[in-house]
Amino acid sequence: MIDTQSKSRSIQIGHRVQVQDQIGTVKYIGELDGHKGTWLGLDWDDPSRGKHDGSVKGIQYFTASTSTSGSFVRLEKVSVGINLIDSITSRYGHQEDEEEMKYNQVAFMALEHQCNMPFLELVGFDGISTKQSNYPELKVLTVRMMNVAHLGDTHQFSLMCPNVEEFDLSKNMIHSWEEVFVLASELKHLHNLNICENRLVMPADISSYKVPHLKTLICGTMTLSMAEIESLALVFPNLQTLIAPYNQIRSLESTLPLETLFHRLEALDLEGNKISDWSEIMKLKHLPNLKNLNLINLQLTKIRIEEDNVFKSLNTLNLKNNQIADLESLSNLNKLSLTALGISRNPIYNLDTHQMVNQIIVAMISSLQVLNGGTILDERKGAEIDYMKKYGLEWLQVQKDEEAKTKFLQTHTRYQEFIEKMGELEESELKHEAKTIKESLIELNLVYEGKEIRKKVPPSLQVQKLVTLCQRLFRLSTAPALVYISIEQPNIEYDLDENREISLYSVQTGDKIVVKC
After folding, report:
1. What pLDDT, on a 0 to 100 scale, did the predictor assign at position 124?
2. Is 398 a domain residue?
3. Average pLDDT for residues 346-360, to the nearest whole number?
4. CA–CA gap between residue 220 and residue 223 (Å, rounded)
């Protein structure tokens, strides 16, 4: 147990401390007006844990990262953590019993789920089944959430565990990148490092640090900027996989060419960062070995690729949960050689039924083999025919207007290719197709708190899309639940399953859908 006097000597501005299960950064040490004793001004990792921005009664003691992440804590209330060697001996110094083994397996599964990146298989950190006292044999280590505050004598640690290949240091109390760099350089076999959920200070001069043997760096939820990412690329010059989700990356502008910084990079994860303009993504266009790119939840609205011969190695792209709504973005993706694409949870799925939009995507991107995790088997020819039929009348209507024709082909870049391959469709056939679709629509009565809206929808509409439609029509803040009432059996209610089509419930024109929040 560390006494208050020892804590006072050991804690410095910038250090990380823990109170119960919450971690914060020390921003102030000293007296607090109107209160006795020594107080710590903390900037919490979780802003909801704090109370203010670092000021109390008009006095600004420190500046917190947000308006609610700051608070003051008495010195004796905080834990200053332990050193790395103590954490390793605690974690691996005895044989674990069956109950403890089960607990650790659950913990690893939770970690895998947290770091799960579509199309990026995160290897390692799952090879630990028992604790071992034979430290030199350990190749996979984890000290996640073990209150490691400082790494101590890294040379001594490297002698203790010389063969470590994969190391999980995530969610601890380390405060300096410098310590991490020294440790990584000492561990000559280390190729996979997870440093997620730490808040580390980058040294002003990184020129003396170089770790050429590290291949995978996982650094999510660390408030990292692009400048810090650039520094990491210089320290770890041979990275093949960089997983950096949910940081503060707003731009990919760098002082050195990205193709120089990341000349070996094969997989890059930028999920949940602050990048909303595709022009920033284009700065990655000349990375020579980039194969997998994760751009989930960036709020991208459109994709435009004006150049040829870019992203030459890219085959897997994840764009889920963005704001892409236009077909021209799909045509631009056809300029790449993608074999796998994730694009669900984008507004483009509001254009038609979920199945039809999938058909459109398959038709518009010629190299695609996997869409939203599902393998495209014998669907391509049918998808291309359906696509031609869907936009055939629009194609015929622009034939005498060169400007409109040019605009059509800008959006539908493969349409002429399909005509050459399958021949021009007859206008009578297209009109019959359009009439058939129109006649197949059913009119539903959508009801919410006494307000009723009639809407025509196809029987193949997914319930999930109907939920989104109702949420938009009635301006609801959250997704509602839907209840189906047939005009033939008005006393019976059916809860609609979001994963099914409405046709499964034999819905007919005039039936009622009750919207419930």
Report:
1. 44
2. no
3. 91
4. 8
